[in-house]
Specification:
The complex is a heterodimer of chains A (115) and B (255).
Chain A lengths: L8 H25 L8 H23 L10 H17 L4 H19 L1
Chain B lengths: L1 H7 L11 H13 L1 H20 L3 H11 L2 H12 L4 H13 L1 H8 L10 H10 L2 H10 L5 H32 L2 H22 L3 H20 L4 H21 L7
The chains are: A mainly alpha (115), B mainly alpha (255).
Chain lengths: 115, 255
């Protein structure tokens, strides 16, 4: 895979092909299964756990091994802001917006104060 | 106006003389309030990430539209930017896509009877990702069945609009704003994913999957870069499933 795929029409085509072949079918499958199958079955419980773990792993990877501008922010600030986000979310009766924007604000504030 | 106010407080309008276009607009209005602003910002984070990775604006917006699922997009872009294999990228994308199945399965019965035409159902399916799913679960049960599909299509349309605008904004802003602001935008994506996982977690198994996945991600990234998300999902998810079964016995809603 080359850098060219990020910018070229071939890259656009690749995005479309992967979306249609590897991503959208799960929505169609869910559409089909949603009309009869039991969402509480064992296979779904497992699938749900796998998917949840994958995204959680992606989150910690993005926080611990960031790319670009976020890499210039110290690990301590990143972790503090992340923990603050969870704290704000729980402290505001699980308000998603407050947690997300609160967390980014903490990151920004700490970054400006330490520069 | 009153309709908008009641939407914000969680009521989604129960007046009986509502036309189909105003049902659609009410759905859009829900999409463009709190979830819309989070989506705008987190897709701006994606736009900034895409710019940072060296992707073109067109490909970034196109990717936002055809996937409409940030985890898949971030995984694929990450794979492209780090020069991983196409097959590896497709597999990782597919693995993030698997989590859409249970979302679809749980949202479809809420879209009401009679069953809508296939094009409408496929459109609704495309809108299903974490945020639209959460909003659907929250709003749809309060509506009469015949209005739900139109309402959900409104939610989805509003959300897609917010993310396309957000992607373009983030992409452009990433070049002109101070690095600290870019860093803040980039930070929105992981914290949004994580809090959304927390918001969607209902069983002990979910919480185990979140914690184990979060702990496994970084070491597996160091040990097996490229396949790390696949392994994180399969190992972390399976451990969480087995341990969750021990704890819960059967799937029980937590209070």
């Amino acid at each position: 895979m080359t850098d060219g795929l990020l910018t070229s029409p071939e890259g656009t085509l690749l995005i479309l092909v992967i979306a249609i072949l590897a991503h959208e079918p799960f929505r169609w499958l869910g559409l089909y299964l949603g009309h009869g199958l039991d969402a509480q079955s064992e296979i779904f419980a497992w699938v749900r756990a796998v998917a949840t773990a994958l995204v959680a792993g992606l989150v910690t990877r993005l926080v611990l091994f960031p790319v670009g501008a976020l890499n210039e922010v110290s690990l301590l600030i990143r972790l503090t802001a992340f923990a603050a986000g969870i704290g704000i979310y729980l402290g505001t009766k699980r308000h998603l917006g407050a947690g997300v924007f609160g967390s980014a604000s903490v990151l920004l504030a700490m970054q400006f104060l330490t520069q | 106006m009153n309709q908008a106010a009641s939407n914000k407080t969680g009521g989604v309008g129960g007046d009986s003389g509502q036309s189909s276009s105003s049902t659609f607009k009410n759905g859009m209005r829900v999409a463009l309030s709190t979830p819309g602003s989070i989506l705008l910002a987190s897709s701006a984070g994606f736009g900034a990430l895409a710019n940072d990775a060296g992707m073109s604006l067109f490909n970034a917006i196109f990717m936002m539209g055809v996937f409409f699922a940030l985890p898949a997009q971030v995984v694929m872009m990450d794979q492209l930017a780090r020069g991983g294999s196409i097959i590896g990228g497709a597999l990782a994308v597919a693995l993030t896509g698997v989590r859409l199945v249970p979302m679809m399965v749980t949202i479809m019965p809420l879209l009401g009877k009679p069953r809508s035409a296939l094009p409408r159902r496929l459109a609704a399916a495309h809108f299903v990702a974490i945020t639209a799913w959460l909003e659907g679960l929250r709003c749809l049960p309060k509506l009469p069945e015949h209005r739900r599909m139109t309402f959900f299509l409104g939610i989805g349309t509003g959300m897609v609009t917010a993310t396309l605008v957000g992607t373009a904004l983030g992409f452009e802003l990433a070049e002109s704003v101070p690095p600290a602001i870019s860093a803040g935008l980039l930070f929105l994506t992981p914290i949004y994913f994580f809090l959304s996982l927390m918001a969607a977690a209902r069983f002990k198994m979910d919480w185990l999957a979140i914690v184990i996945g979060a702990l496994l991600g970084p070491p597996l990234y160091v040990l097996t870069p490229g396949l790390d998300l696949l392994f994180t999902g399969l190992i972390g998810g399976t451990v969480a499933y087995v341990a969750g079964r021990r704890f819960d016995g059967i799937l029980e809603e937590e209070e």
